[in-house]
Amino acid sequence: MLREKYERVPSGCAVSGIMDRSGRRFSGNDIIQSIALMRERSNGLGGGFAAYGIYPEYKDHYAFHMFYDDEQAREISERFLNEHFNIAEAGPIPTKKVSSIKNEPIIWRYFALPKEEKLTSSGLLPDEFVAQCVINLNKKIDGAFVVSSGKNMGAFKGVGYPEDIGEFYRLYEYEGYTWTAHGRFPTNTPGWWGGAHPFTLLDLSVVHNGELSSYGTNRRYLNEFGYECTMQTDTEVVAYLLDLFTRRQGMPLEMACKIMAPPMWDEIERMPDDDKALYTALRTVYGKALMNGPFSIIVAFSNGMVALNDRIKLRPLVAAEKGDVLYVSSEESAIIEICPQPDKIWAPRAGEPVIGMLEEVKA
Fold it and tell me: Active-site residue 13, yes or no?
């Protein structure tokens, strides 16, 4: 058992995502069933989910999911939150006793809106204000960790196999229009509750299979824009890079993907002149944001989901469609398990994003 837990398996980790582009909400049962089929790709040291559309009664509030090591960390964090936000509701996230889940932190959630006087004095828009508060909480308060902070969404994660984490958080009781999941096999960092996937900022969440050899360069690049990487994992930079490009700089999602997983230089040389000029400019200007190494990622946000793998496809990624529903996963079997007869199923090319956008959200 110890060898299974700690032996390095470079191709380990599993990712899965389901999105109903019509906005129809459905329970967490399917995503739990999908990720459970890939149990052998993880080792019990991390599992997690992101869910969108789960808080319609508080859809205009920021939903803070928090981990605390102890009551002192909770008290300090709540003083900070009450100073900067109007809290509509606060309390522990409902959980269920699961024998395999041990040593859980104190797990709370808050539905909150920034105080108007704080927004005025800071000169920031609400999303940027919340993002800076999240970074400050993670950096400055020992024993406190922001799991997620978006509107009408939440991340649920911990140390354990993903299907056990799903049962622990009672995800079958929630309904959402987008679900993502991760089964973790840590290779370079420890298995701890905050280090499980997904990683989030505001409504953006990332689950990741692989390793980023460019982590150091990416992290230093993000530091130039005020992002602090504090979570002991390379995946954190993916969430921050996408937040920087799409929210702060207003860049189209497709363009952000071209920056993060661009073609090789020899491919660029063979392109038509317009494409060659575009990719040359992107690699020149945003070279420090390029993600090197083997990876496949699923990124979810309030109005969409995107899956992307590295530019030479060293990690697996499969996509499928059935009516309005988009599926992405590490393995085809994890899709067929919950959608036996998809209308279309394919393996995306290296560096080719699979993008699903929401049409509307149904109550």
Answer: yes
